Amino acid sequence: MTVDVQWAADALLTAYRTRQPISPIAARFADAPLSTAYEIALAQVESWVKDGDVVKGHKVGLASRAIQRQMNVDQPDFGHLTAGMFHLEHQPIPADTFIQPRIEPEVAFVLAKPLRGPGVTVAEAAAAVDFCLPALEIVDSRIQDWQIGIFDTVADNASSGGVVLGSRPVRLADVDLRLAGCTLHVNGELIATGAGGAVLGSPLNALVWLANTVGPLGVTLEPGHVVLPGSMTKAVPIAPGDAVVADIAGVGSVTAVLAGKEDR
User: Fold this and answer.
1) Whole-prediction pTM value?
2) Which of 66, 80, 166, 230 is most buried, by CB atoms within 10 Å?
3) DSSP 8-state secondary structure symbol assigned to residue 177
4) 263 band by pLDDT with thresholds 50, 70 and 90
5) Strands 102-111 and 86-87: what pairing?
6) Residue 58 · residue 79 · CB < 8 Å
């Protein structure tokens, strides 16, 4: 690990710990390939695992044009999901877990078989899925004011923050994820709408992209792991006390609650 990679990983780990965002790091890596950003992210994951956390899955970020335009990037990325990022539906999530949270509705895949690229096909990806769940991903950035480009967000573990899963499993064969519409309500107000087709044409395509991207890096998508394929809508800022409901046609609904003062 180079000195610069260690510096960036330590800076981001400090931001996680103190909840104080840092300035963008990309300028220090102007000539570095994107693989260097993944090195920075992996160094943080290794630190969390060393401290007792466990990898429970992966996420695809920046998978829809709406999110790419919002974040001013032009390609997907991926991050790791650890046990500490998962929160129960309807249970207040401590607001001080995050710095500047936003929320995204997704269809989560839970795997029954391992997937390892390169060369994974849609057929193989579909056969590896045990079931789907409605999900809300809380994305967060350790970079001040979300001033991120692709290098910054990749280094920041794809801006991962938290995950809330619904509790009604659905078989992949029972829903057409391309056509599944989604509504996102915050405190009862309709904030955004979308559909599965916004996620690389289908959330299943995002699963294929992920398996084929992480495989050459030595990563296998493991049975029982959760894969978040990407948001069906733009990311929406949330604040303490907010209750968020995503309803995905054919998949179900999921509710996330960010704790307010009365929950402390």
Assistant:
1) 0.94
2) 230
3) T
4) low
5) unpaired
6) yes
